[in-house]
């Protein structure tokens, strides 16, 4: 797959990987390799940022940062202030000044808070962060975030971890039509076919975690998602024909008349 650009960085894959829910760090590393992903996200609450010696290993100890672009995410933040503090802490600990901005105060549905997300994005962009906000599939919010200066928008396909696919397809289509920044479909993708569908619509990338990490075979599933993303993107670039209202013969009928 050809390289593309996000936030001034060249990326070699359109499949982004989350790093939660794996049974072991070893399985995570194997799945990352099989996925072909270049960008991976890591929840800051699962990372040791104190710099103390003799600490227990965390996820960053297992991820080859020369091979993968590690983007911290603020999952678990309940408001803009908390998300901004987490991003600053990660940057001060030497992680890239990139952030997947997640703010979801409701622990049951984990739906993103649009008001707090927009406020945090304003602050972090002003401080020089490359901001990738996780949002509802809300075209108006997506445009407001573009105006603030985010590097991409990351609308959900369905609630986090639900594996229900592109339930927000109608609104995703509007976002994709209007977007002037990359659109990365994040959350709810449960099958490779969901990823292919998102790419066929014109998404720049997809982010997958649960569907791979919770699979009986994370390595095999990572490979399946990799192939689906590549196939979907290729189909989009070639151009898909619109569905017909009636049957269209594949061979000229008059030949037999």
Automatic annotation (TrEMBL):
<dbReference type="GO" id="GO:0005737">
    <property type="term" value="C:cytoplasm"/>
</dbReference>
<feature type="binding site">
    <location>
        <begin position="187"/>
        <end position="188"/>
    </location>
    <ligand>
        <name>1-deoxy-D-xylulose 5-phosphate</name>
    </ligand>
</feature>
<dbReference type="GO" id="GO:0009229">
    <property type="term" value="P:thiamine diphosphate biosynthetic process"/>
</dbReference>
<protein>
    <recommendedName>
        <fullName>Thiazole synthase</fullName>
        <ecNumber>2.8.1.10</ecNumber>
    </recommendedName>
</protein>
<comment type="pathway">
    <text>Cofactor biosynthesis; thiamine diphosphate biosynthesis.</text>
</comment>
<dbReference type="Pfam" id="PF05690">
    <property type="entry name" value="ThiG"/>
</dbReference>
<feature type="active site" description="Schiff-base intermediate with DXP">
    <location>
        <position position="100"/>
    </location>
</feature>
<keyword id="KW-0784">Thiamine biosynthesis</keyword>
<dbReference type="InterPro" id="IPR013785">
    <property type="entry name" value="Aldolase_TIM"/>
</dbReference>
<feature type="domain" description="Thiazole synthase ThiG">
    <location>
        <begin position="6"/>
        <end position="252"/>
    </location>
</feature>
<keyword id="KW-0963">Cytoplasm</keyword>
<dbReference type="InterPro" id="IPR008867">
    <property type="entry name" value="ThiG"/>
</dbReference>
<dbReference type="InterPro" id="IPR033983">
    <property type="entry name" value="Thiazole_synthase_ThiG"/>
</dbReference>
<feature type="binding site">
    <location>
        <position position="161"/>
    </location>
    <ligand>
        <name>1-deoxy-D-xylulose 5-phosphate</name>
    </ligand>
</feature>
<comment type="function">
    <text>Catalyzes the rearrangement of 1-deoxy-D-xylulose 5-phosphate (DXP) to produce the thiazole phosphate moiety of thiamine. Sulfur is provided by the thiocarboxylate moiety of the carrier protein ThiS. In vitro, sulfur can be provided by H(2)S.</text>
</comment>
<dbReference type="GO" id="GO:1990107">
    <property type="term" value="F:thiazole synthase activity"/>
</dbReference>
<keyword id="KW-0704">Schiff base</keyword>
<comment type="subunit">
    <text>Homotetramer. Forms heterodimers with either ThiH or ThiS.</text>
</comment>
<keyword id="KW-0808">Transferase</keyword>
<feature type="binding site">
    <location>
        <begin position="209"/>
        <end position="210"/>
    </location>
    <ligand>
        <name>1-deoxy-D-xylulose 5-phosphate</name>
    </ligand>
</feature>
<comment type="similarity">
    <text>Belongs to the ThiG family.</text>
</comment>
